[in-house]
Design brief:
Layout: H1 2-24, H2 31-45, H3 58-77, H4 80-94, H5 100-126
Length: 127
């Protein structure tokens, strides 16, 4: 019973993260809400975490606390009728198979961002 509740909660979070991605691309959503929705969706859907999961306890805190709080906050800023529309679209999309190409793009963006940051730090240390 408890496991089923957790599974429903996790599915709702995943659906809402996808709905946030869709809201971030919608012209009817206010600018601040768009930015927050894009950041939260990117973090929630990204395979790379701020705190890696292999770090005991702390590794899962971002998944269990930060992601749901970010999703909750972003959802509060989006008009309810727009959110409802994108939740339906996100639920329909979850029935389709996952795209490996999209996952590769997300990983590539994170690798480029990490390499750029490392290069900037290395360059700053040489100065």
């Amino acid at each position: 019973m408890m496991f089923e509740k957790f599974k429903r909660w996790a599915r709702a979070l995943r659906r809402d993260a996808h709905a946030l991605y869709l809201c971030a691309r919608d012209g009817r959503v206010p600018g601040g809400a768009k930015i927050l929705a894009a950041v939260v969706a990117a973090y929630a859907l990204s395979p790379i975490d701020l705190i890696p999961d292999f770090i005991p306890i702390l590794g899962y805190l971002d998944d269990l606390i930060l992601v749901p709080l970010g999703i909750w906050w972003a959802l509060k800023l989006i008009p309810p009728h727009i959110l409802a529309e994108h939740r339906v679209a996100a639920a329909a999309a979850s029935a389709k198979p996952a795209s490996r190409a999209a996952a590769a793009v997300v990983v590539a963006v994170w690798v480029i961002a990490a390499a750029s940051l490392a290069w900037s730090v290395w360059r700053g240390l040489r100065s």
